[in-house]
Amino acid sequence: MKAFINKITNLLKNSRTLKRVMLTFRFQLLRKLDDQTITIFTETYFHNRDSLKELIELIPERKKMVEVGSLAGFSTRLFSLYFDEVVSVDPYQPDYDAEDLNSNRFRLSIARDLFTIRFYDDPRVRQIRESSKNAVGGFADGELDFVYIDAGHTYADVKEDIARWRSKVRKGGWMAGDDHDWPGVSKAVSEEFEDYKVVNDRWIAGIA
User: Fold this and answer.
1) How wide is the angle at C-alpha 118 spanned by C-alphas 169 and 76, nearest 5°?
2) What pLDDT score does 146 carry?
3) pTM for the structure as a whole
């Protein structure tokens, strides 16, 4: 009897129908989390991105962009309302920064699933689940109108991401990023750009 039960269990585990049912259930469960709040245990995190609109409106041409670091896709959703094509680059690898709550393994797994749900039927958005270092090679120089950097917030991470993606932005395009109030972010940006603007704690610079 035990062998029979194990056989049935293994068949069910490999059943495409069961996998589809479980995936649908998971999606329905996670859809209950709205676009403004993620609650993990007793902690609540708000993600209001309306203030990002002011920065986006500074960019006159909005065809193709890359967002480096997307988490659950709150900012990505807003970008997708303005740009023809949005490419998210995020490997969802944990423990990248002890000072950043979002590097927690559990938080990242939730963010990854929420991103999948939010954009699974949106043709304007695609995601590359690779590191910034690996993903950048898939883009030609001058291919992008805009790159938004919101991945690692250490000085080294931000400086490397700016240097890595800068050539991929066309002349007259823009680079920007989140959390200018983080010391590592502001230091890296001030060293990489002589002239940049801060809008609602986000930095933005033109590419000459």
Assistant:
1) 25
2) 98
3) 0.79
